[in-house]
Structures are given as C-alpha cells and as structure tokens.
Amino acid sequence: MSTKPSGDEPAEDETKETDNSKLGGKEAPDVESETSTGGDSSASGDEDASGEPGGEDEVSAEEPSAADDAKEDDDESDELGDVVDTDDEDQPAVRVPLKQRLIAFWTPARLCVALVVVAVLGLGWWATRPIETPKPPPEPPKPEELYAEQIQRVLDGVSKQLHTVSYPIKDDDLKKLPFDQLKDAAKQRSELRQHLESLAEDSGGESPDDHDENSAPLPPSDRFSRLGGDEPQITELPMLDTVLIDEGVITDKGMETIAEIPELRHVRLRLSPITDAGLEPLLKCETLWFLNLPHSKLTEEGVRSLAKLPKLRQLRLGSTLLGNEVCRALLEVKSLRGIHLIGVPVSDEGLKVLVELPHLESLYLDDSGITETGWDWLFQNHPQLHVHINQRHHDRDPQYHVHE
Length: 404
Description:
alpha/beta, eight-stranded parallel β-sheet, 8 strands, 39% helix, LRR_dom_sf, Adenylate cyclase
C-alpha cells in the first residue's frame, strides 16, 4: 500500500484557491455552515417530535380558539339576556314586555319583603302621628240669647212671631219686647192704610179694609206692600202679631204685658193658668182672631166676655172649671168659626146648642160626654161641619179624610 507524499497537500490547497478565483471572486458557500444549519434543522425537528414547543405551536397560537368565540358571543348579549344579532343591522332588538319583566322581578320573596317594609313604615307613622286633642262640642245657646235673637228678627222684619219651644218664658221676659218700636211701626201702618183708603174712595173702589163681617179674617197680608215714591212700605216695618209660648208659665200679670202688643192676632199660652181677670186686658186687642188657652182657669163668665173681640174666629180652650153650661156662653160669641174644647164634659144637649152658632165651620171636642146618639144626630142634621173627636174623625163623619 503506497502513501502519498506530504508535499502533495499544498498543491491541493492551491488548486482550491484557483477554483475560487475562477468563480469570479465569489465565495463558495461554507460547507460547514450549511452542515451546521442542517444540523440545527434536524435538531429542531427532533425537538418537535419529542413534544417540545416548536414553530408550529407558535402559528397555531395566533388562531382564535372556541372559548374565545363563546366569550365574544356572550359579549354580544345585552344586559337583559336578549341576544342581539350584530351582523344584521336591519333586524330590531327583541325586548321582553314590561309586564313579564315585572312578573319576573317581583318574586314572592320580594313581594313579602315589600309588604313587610310597607307595614313597618305604616305602623311607624301611626305610632308617631300627631294626635289632635278633640274639641269639646259647642255649648248650646242660652235661653236669653235665643230670646234676644227672636226679638232682633222681629225688629229686622224677618219674622212676625215670638215662638218659644225649647226654652221657658216668664212674665219678666215679656217686658223685654220692643214695645216702642212696634207701636211706632203700627202707627205708620195705620196712616198708610188710611192713605190707601182715601185713594180708594176717590177712585170709587172698595176700601182695603172693607170686608164682610161674616167672613173670617186671614193672617196678615202684604197686599199693600208697594205704595210708590219714597214712602215706607208696610212690609218693611217691624210687626209682632203672633205669640206662641209652649214652655214656661205665664200668669195674669204676663197677660197684661202681652195685651200691650199692637196688632196682636194669635196668642197661644200652654201650661199657663190664665183666669177671667187675666183675660180682661186681652179684650182690648180688637185685631185678635185666634186664642189658644189649653190649660186655663176660665169660667163661663170669662168665655162670655170673649164676645168683646169682634174679629175672634178661632177658639181653643181647656179648663177644669167649665161644664156643659159653657155651650150657652159660647153661643154669645157669634164671630166664632171654629171651636176646640179640651176636657170639657159637653153632653148631647150641649152639642145641639153649639151647632146653633151662625158661622160655625169646625168643631173639635176632646174627652167630651157626647154619646153615639148625639154624634148620629149631628152627622144627619149638620153634615157640613168639620168634626174631630179626640183628634180624629168619626167613622160615620161625612167629612172624613186622612190627615198627614
């Protein structure tokens, strides 16, 4: 086996250099670097195969994963759980109705909590609310105030009567009546009536006060209320023509005070034991047309004196001192149109006397002594009479009617 001499090796180096120069001065690729590169590649390949991170893993990390897609889908849902399709801009968002949302919000537990809160707040307000002290009821007006108010109404021309129902009146209270003003007003009214009468005579007409003596007078009228000019009107002047005292006791002395009232027409005194002496001052009241004394102490003489009242038309009388003889006394009061006797023991014979009154229209008898025979005679002979027996009609009364 032959060996090359060591002198040949430089010759090969020179040959390589000559080849490099032939390439145009270009340097040949470094075989060692390629080799090293190839080695690195193979090494990388080995690392990939062994599960170590490599180039392919870096590429796959840049691609979106399925979890990221789900998260983006969740972001595209609104706060109420409604899915909004962001890809389709023309499609409106779907909203849950308010009623359904309220139903979903107000669960039974929340409702119970709300009710408890409201109840606690209500109880707290109720416990701490300001409590007003109840005001005491107003005191009822005193009798003196009521009496003064009625007198003022008379002076103002609002009322023409003194009517005491809820409070008593005594003799001294009657002295507080405005007698001076009433007398002045009555005087003016008299002058005005005289003036009207003169005008009626000049015109050939009938006088305003001319009336048939057989006809019953009516309560005060306002038919002469307008006189023209600046003259006062009759209705504007104060007048007290009615005195109705249902509470309290008026004696004969009080009757003297009542008799001073001018133009007095109607008097009713309950619970007042007026005697014949107390009745005497009242006989001067020529205008009186209704007298009501249900608890008097009158006798036949006192009843007979009523004939001095020319305009007396209605009489309601009760007295324990009267008997069947009162019928003869009443027969003398020929102006009467209506009679009401209370507790007077009138007999059948007395009834036949009463109906002889020339202008009698109504007959009321309470607790009388008339028998059925007497009533039959009355209904057959005087069917035109308006008869009441103990505040009601007799069953055989031709004038029977129902009172409301």
